[in-house]
Design a protein that fits this description.
12% strand; alpha/beta; 10 helices; Spore Coat Polysaccharide Biosynthesis Protein SpsA, Chain A
Length: 275
């Protein structure tokens, strides 16, 4: 089996328009964090015998909008360079590797693999599924999907039940069969993102996550969920428990990226990451 990992980070002026993160310019912080993540995954790829590809320029997205940039992750589907690989892991650039275990060993039966937003368990007990407890959020997600004739597919046991199936697209493994099917079947992402005003909502709905999740459900892809530890965030009661548990440490949002830099400086990843 020939597998690969793909990451990218592109910063435009629009990124800084979203504001500072404490005393750091957003774009500069994103680039610093991305460089550490790139090197972390390069070393991990060598350990598990996979190829690692990193991009710092846009090839697929032709917009400088800070949310539109997220759709560059679709390059794993549309770039024929990836056709040589059996499985491709797309990984965000705010993730640090905290394991030597091979993530591709999890991916035997299925087409697409990842963690559902509703399956996350945080220190407070909840997940990232705001649509399950905020009526307006569910109404907005449903309206967006309905506009594009995408079904709203709930999550059932054995996963945590949820009103909508939303995959966290910061860590997704795609089989070759899934990538080729998606290339043929997925709706053009620009139809989703640049839709008329009546189909525009908060960026949490307009980004790649609901789009990809909706396409997977609409076209009946075999989506297999993997343990949270493979795409985990520092929401644990203590940092000690976080590092004992998480195999892939995902510093989503803004200020968590500052924690990532602090953890690197403290040597928390020294077993797996050589600076």
């Amino acid at each position: 089996m020939k597998n690969a990992i793909f990451q990218y980070m592109v910063v435009t002026d629009k990124v800084d328009e979203r504001g500072m993160i404490k005393d750091r310019k957003r774009g500069e912080l994103y680039l610093e964090v991305a460089e550490h993540s790139r090197r972390s995954f390069e070393q991990y790829a060598l350990t598990i015998g996979a190829d690692h590809h990193y991009a710092d320029t846009l090839e697929f997205v032709k917009s400088d909008d800070s949310t539109a940039l997220l759709f560059e992750c679709l390059r794993v589907i549309y770039d024929p360079m990836f056709d040589q690989y059996d499985k491709v892991l797309f990984a965000d650039t705010d993730i640090m590797v905290n394991t030597n275990e091979d993530i591709f060993d999890l991916c035997e039966e299925g087409e697409v693999f990842g963690v559902l937003e509703s399956d996350y368990v945080t220190s407070g007990g909840g997940g990232y599924n705001s649509w399950d407890y905020k009526k307006q959020n569910f109404a907005d997600f449903s309206a967006k999907y309905q506009y594009h004739d995408i079904p709203v597919v709930p999550v059932f046991a054995p996963n945590k039940p949820s009103k909508i199936t939303i995959l966290n697209t910061g860590m997704v493994i795609w089989t070759k069969e899934a990538r080729l099917r998606a290339r043929e079947l997925f709706m053009d992402w620009e139809e989703w993102f640049f839709a008329p005003e009546e189909a525009q909502y908060h960026m949490s709905i307009m980004n790649d996550q609901p789009y990809i999740s909706g396409q997977l459900m609409q076209h009946d892809f075999d989506l297999v969920t993997i343990p949270q530890t493979w795409n985990d965030s520092p929401h644990y009661v203590t940092e000690k428990v976080f590092f004992e548990t998480a195999k892939m440490c995902h510093y989503t949002g803004g200020e968590w990226k500052l924690d990532m830099l602090r953890h690197i400086e403290e040597g928390r990843f020294s077993q797996y990451y050589k600076q």
